Amino acid sequence: MDATIEKKYTFKDFASDQEVRWCPGCDDYVILRAMQKALPEMGVKKEDVVFISGIGCSSRFPYYMDTYGMHSIHGRAPAIATGTKLANPNLSVWVITGDGDSMAIGGNHFIHVLRRNVDLNIVLFNNEIYGLTKGQFSPTSLVGQKTKSSPYGNTQPPFSAGELAIGAQARFFARIGGNTPKEMTQIFIEAEKFEGTSLIEVMQNCPIFNDGCYNEFTDKAVREDKQLFVEHGKPMVFGKERDKGLVLKGLKLEVVTIGENGITEDDILVHDAKEQDPTLHQMLVRLHYPKVTGIIRSYNDVTFDERMNNQIKEVKMKSDFHYTDDLFFSGDTYEVK
Amino acid sequence: MTTIKTNHQPKTLHAVIIRFVGDSGDGMQLTGTQFSDTSAMFGNDIATFPNYPAEIRAPQGSLYGVSGFQVHIGSVEINTPGDEVDLLVAMNPAGLKTNLHAVKPGHTIIVDTDAFTKKNLDKAQYDTNPLEDGSLENYQVIEVAMTSLTKEALKDIEGLDNKSITRSKNMFALGMVYWMYNRSTDHTINFFEKKFSAKPELIEANIKVLNTGYYFAETLELIPNSYGVAPAKMAPGTYRIIMGNTATAWGFLAASEKSGLDLFLGSYPITPASDILHELAKHQHFGVKTFQAEDEIAGITSAIGASFAGNLAITTTSGPGLALKGEALGLAMMIEMPIVVVNVQRGGPSTGLPTKTEQSDLLQALYGRNGESPVIVIAASTPANCFDFAYQASKLTLEHMTPVVLLTDGYIANGSAPWRIKSVKDMPEIKTNITREYQEGWHPYDRDEETLARSWAIPGTPGLEHRVGGLEKDRVSGNVSYVPDNHEYMVKIRAEKIKRVQNAIPELKSEFVDEGELLVIGWGGTFGSLYSAIKDIREQGYDSIGLAHFNYINPLPKNTEEVLKRFKKIIVCELNNGQFAKVLKLNFNDFEILQFNKIQGLPFGNEELIQKFKQVLK
């Protein structure tokens, strides 16, 4: 990031001239707008921003952004983005993917990009269904879910994106509802600031094939009671009355009510996103009630690109080889006259 | 340390083929490399080929644990490691058993008699000792108790363990061979002085054994004759011995320096291509980024990502890996991004014969993708020219903005030969198609009028923000387009772009004669075998035979048809079931095209080619 950027952008600077073609009412519109609003706040130059996507509804995203972009092939965006970031570490590289793209066909690249901790940002549009192929179950669909390819109910248990990611050593994991653009914008900004792979899972409603799949957490009427939006350094309190909170009982998280049974706010767990040990982060990710949103994990670690570039710098400094001639004419050569 | 001067007047030969064989742990690769390097420095032309077991640590003494190294040295031009050998050095019974068939009748075999124990004979499945049962009476067998002589030579050196002592017996064999072929021991002595500079006892031991072997051969009346191979007439210059895979890696280094673009390799280990990854991983001092990916697909896609960001990006693989990369290669073709895919071919299909050579990925390289997706396909033909074709692949991909598949194979990738070192200064210019700043009316799919290469706008450049992708693109703006006419136009322009590469590649030459009775056609790694066989058959009076060897396969050289026309008969020789023959038939239907195919995981033998050519010429 360059502190001397003079140009101030607005969200319009990041909108391309292409007509957006998602279904009416899709949360993808919310995500697009949140991103276009977040980018001017990030302090990056427009020409340094790259969006790389795979295949699926979500993956049309780069076409709608007036930045550099690549709409690639199914599941491979994390590997492409890794190459882009390694080639030019100054770029702000974003991967746009869906639940099928990242956790089915692209599962291998997804876990390895997280393991390596390449400094890029991944926005995972999780709608628990295959949209573009018109309604088959995905690796995050629920058991029993009736879809076009599971008319009698899905028999495959789902992945939890956060659990999988943290298991694959994700240093940054955030989850956010598809209908909370303000928080989403803020998380995008934080993700860009974070050095390392940032994964943002958006609970994205598909109004056509899986409408209402997140309603029990995301519906405006219940959201505050059913969601816990965590913030680093703050007690994990939720509820319309801000009277519910989390405590640790043995090896389980438990919901308690402040003011009942002698519980005060001091008893409530304080969120530490920066902790290296992911145990508590995993527990938060797994929790069904409340559904935990916000930045759950944000542990600072050396990035892969940094490690690689430092190694190259060091080798360059120590080496006598500066040009290929130095190598080609070194060692066992001989003259023919 | 005094070095030994040669002091005998050897009989002179034009060329000699020597094979060193023994157990995996006997140091045969080192022995062979030392002999070939010494011969090259003496001025011989050489060609070598290692042959080691697929098993990493095969059981000692077993037939499948035999490791071998063949070297062909000559005072004349040498084009192949050769077929039948003049001298076999066998360090154990298993080595003798598995290699005896390759020894020319009447020629010499040196054996370590100490290794011919009951136990080793059993492991090699010999019922009787071949040294005693008369089965070797057609050969000159030189029996030497190498292990005991080595032990005896080293008995006074302190600080050596038993293992180091027995392991140096390969130097005894090397010393003998050095004397027989009138070679100096200097190079090997220097080698040990450098290698073991921290362990003086090992330097002393190895040199002692080397010299002991050398003197032993000199003293021994048993050696029937000794040979000299005079220096070959080679173009003046500075040379080094290079392996095909190393030459490939270095060609990319040179192209990176010349083009001013950083080199990025995305790769997943696979036999026999991994050595390119190993070699490039050593050269971070040139800013090379090697990324060992999680799989073949990530190997190529990371390279596509790096190319998008403006690197010279490559990926390396072998047959099954190319299959996995197919979809991504189609993407690179569709978004018209520069990338080189190196396929070091091995025996297929499926896992096939990973350590053996074959040319059976040609059709996969040409057609192994969905949709109409032509790419440039070129092939290297010798270990040394892997350098030139890696360089050329980079130049073509950067100048024409389309992927290039570079085919080599296990035979030339692992083989080594002298390389007259090329400086980057002497390599042709590489002009990239990068657009560095915004100009009014710029579009990502603006094309160069001559080459049709599209403009390359790299992230980080203000004003050129644009999107690429696998969906069909509008011919100008690059936006997604489903317009029927546009799709047809784009399919045709991508094909035309490849066709126009014909203007950038050299014309096809026919070697030996411009017209005549028979045109032998080959491509890629078979050049040495075909060239030698034709040279030999011409000496037998068949002088109306020419060779057209292809390095450029898609597109074919412009004048291909003209060359074909000038011969009465055409035979395509390849190590597959007729893939290039199919390509020629598809392109030129006025010719009868004969085929000679070999699919045994082995290169062509000289004699089988000569027999075939004679039969065709009858």
UniProtKB/TrEMBL annotation, chain A:
Q: Which Gene3D superfamilies match?
A: 3.40.50.970
Q: Which GO terms describe its biological process?
A: cellular respiration; small molecule metabolic process
Molecular function via GO: oxidoreductase activity, acting on the aldehyde or oxo group of donors, iron-sulfur protein as acceptor; thiamine pyrophosphate binding
InterPro entries given for it? 2-oxoacid:Fd_oxidoreductase, THDP-binding, TPP_enzyme_TPP-bd
List residues of the Thiamine pyrophosphate enzyme TPP-binding domain: 55-202
Among the Pfam families in the record, one is: TPP_enzyme_C
Question: Which key words tag this protein in UniProt?
Answer: Oxidoreductase
Lineage, top-rank taxon, reads: Bacteria
Q: Does the keyword RNA-binding apply?
A: no
Entry-linked PANTHER family:
2-OXOGLUTARATE OXIDOREDUCTASE SUBUNIT KORB (PTHR48084:SF4), 2-OXOGLUTARATE OXIDOREDUCTASE SUBUNIT KORB-RELATED (PTHR48084)
Q: What is this protein called?
A: 2-oxoglutarate ferredoxin oxidoreductase subunit beta
* Species classification: Bacteria, Pseudomonadati, Bacteroidota, Flavobacteriia, Flavobacteriales
Automatic annotation (TrEMBL), chain B:
* Organism of origin: Seonamhaeicola aphaedonensis
Give the Pyruvate flavodoxin/ferredoxin oxidoreductase pyrimidine binding domain ranges. Answer: 264-473
Q: State whether keyword Cell cycle applies.
A: no
Fetch the NCBIfam families from UniProt. Answer: OAFO_sf (TIGR03710)
Query: Which GO BP terms, alphabetically?
Result: response to oxidative stress
Q: What is this protein called?
A: 2-oxoglutarate ferredoxin oxidoreductase subunit alpha
- Keyword Ribonucleoprotein found: no
The residues forming a coiled coil are none
Q: Name one GO molecular function term.
A: oxidoreductase activity, acting on the aldehyde or oxo group of donors
Keyword line:
Oxidoreductase
